[in-house]
Amino acid sequence: MSADQLALIARTPRHKASATAARVLVFNTQHASPARARRQAAWLADQPAADLLVITEVGAGPGSHALIAALTDHGYASVLVPKAPDRDYRAVLASRSAALTPVHSGVTVLPHRAPCASLEIGDCPVTLLGLYVPSRGPRQRRNEDKRAFQAAVSAALPALVSDGTGLLIVAGDLNVVEPGHIPHHSVFGDWEYDFYRSFALAGLTDAFRHLHPRAVEHSWYGRSGLGYRIDHAFVATSRRARILACDYLHQPRELGLTDHSALALNVACS
Predict the structure, then answer these.
(1) Sheet arrangement for strand 116-121
(2) pLDDT tens across 157-190, in order?
(3) What is the dihedral of CA 146, 147, 152, 154, to 10 degrees?
(4) Residue 204 near residue 235, CB atoms below 8 Å
(5) Keywords in UniProt for this one (predicted)?
(6) What end-to-end distance do the CA atoms of the chain give, in Å?
(7) Which CATH number is correct for 5-268, 2.160.10.10, 3.40.50.2300, 3.40.50.720, 3.60.10.10?
(8) Which pLDDT score, from 0 to 100, does residue 1 have?
């Protein structure tokens, strides 16, 4: 796999990308095998509003190679694949039509989990930051990577927001729920809720919560059967009036493609 950018010759996509809105789909692959990765790519390509993808929990083995090749076969013309050291998981960005230009996110810890790209939709400049926050990790290093990565993301967000040009979208699997989450999960500490709050403090709005202030939704379920809303999408608060839709799609989880629901975001460019 090449360094950051795979500009591959792609087939014509099944659906035409919007020229007036940023239509983003957040999708956790659950470290898919090659066969399941190809089924995931087929499902993603079949979604009319999946012009931009934020794909999380992408490994470094055969499954990731199969996923990226399949996305290209299904018409995703631009794919941003960060290099991950020591076979760590990473986040990947993909676009049906708009070229993704890698930009530095400012996230200095585990940057392969925070790929950032600039693109243009019509005349609208867009910055897209994908995030895949580490899980708690092994007992001997419990929460070390998660804390360090979250701190680096929180530190980087204000500069991204203050740039102020065009549309800023930050999305991915944060491995954290919002304060007041239903049901309550005692496993989350104040430092994790502070990470969620840091988005609002930096000038970002939770798109789903903005449109659905009282809705109870979950994107992942633990062994106990209790749900967690850990996949999120944020838009710069100054542009929150442009948020047209933000909804969880449960079909991928129900079909056994992955253990996460997808999250679909639609934001008007102007």
Answers:
(1) 101-102, 116-121, 124-132, 167-173, 231-236, 204-206
(2) 999 999 877 999 999 999 999 999 999 998 899 9
(3) 110
(4) yes
(5) Endonuclease, Hydrolase, Nuclease
(6) 36
(7) 3.60.10.10
(8) 44
